[in-house]
Amino acid sequence: MSKAHRQTEAVGSANTPEGGGPGLVEIVLELLKARRERLAVVESCTGGLLGAMLTAIPGSSAVFAGGWITYTNAMKVAEVGVPGELFPDAARPAADPPGAVSAQVARAMALGGLEHARFGFATGEGVEHCLAVTGIAGPDGGTESKPVGTVWICRASRETEDRGAHLADCRRFRFPGDRDSVREHAATTALAMLRQALTGVEAALPHQQEPTSESSPEPGTSPKT
């Protein structure tokens, strides 16, 4: 059994099958296919791992549109429109922005990906869901308030009754283990969050520290915390 599959099992029985059968990735893809909905991803600390897990499954292109690896703050701003004022700036030393590893940035990444994924589809509808991941995988970069293993994951979705409205579910996690383990935990947990949304399950996931959920009536904007 691969390390990625072991991490998939670690997100809990409410989100993974028991006794074998399809894995979490396959289940999420099948749920999306059944609903005729599509997914995009915006990744920072996972560096493309989430997209790789999805594209490892044959036929995933039916529902997985693609995504962005926005590893630097500048890429987050340029590629998916994360507001620059959310990041530290030497020109504004008195400001106290939340920084890259925060609910605000995770939400802006997810909502930005949801909007920017509109291009490339003839219908102009884009995707219905976007997963965003930003965190500190280590071994360096941790602080007292944001230790190594801290990851914010956000799932943004277009609400079915009003496709102009967005719902953002953002959660803070503290994952154990080395760099690879943190990244794999983050990628599989993001998929588990999407599975919960697609199946109507509301429950905390392993290593979850803090949840925030909020609707955004303005496409392409991030709600205030």
Characteristics:
225 residues; 22% strand; 6 strands; 31% helix; 6 helices; six-stranded mixed β-sheet; globular; alpha/beta; Maf protein
Quick take:
With 225 residues, this protein is α/β, with parallel strands linked by helices.
Rg over CA atoms:
16 Å
**Could you tell me the mean pLDDT?**
85
User: Strand count, sense and closure of the main sheet?
Assistant: 6 strands, mixed
CATH top level is: Alpha Beta
In whole angstroms, the N-to-C terminal distance is 41 Å
- Tell me which oligomeric state these chains represent: single chain
Kindly state the number of beta strands: 6
Hey, roughly how much beta strand do the residues contain? 15-25%
Describe the fold and architecture:
- The protein has 225 residues and is α/β, with parallel strands linked by helices.
- The chain has a single domain, classed as Maf protein.
- Helix content is 31%, strand content 22%.
- It contains 6 helices and 6 strands; from the N terminus they run H-H-E-H-E-H-H-E-E-E-H-E.
- It has helices spanning 3-9, 24-35, 49-55, 73-80, 103-116, 179-199, and strands spanning 39-43, 64-69, 129-135, 150-159, 162-174, 208-216.
- Strands 2-1-3-4-5-6 form a 6-stranded mixed sheet, sandwiched between helices.
- Helix 3 links the parallel strand 1 (39-43) and strand 2 (64-69).
- The N and C termini lie far apart (41 Å).
- The model is unreliable at 1-10, 12-20 and 217-225 (pLDDT under 50).
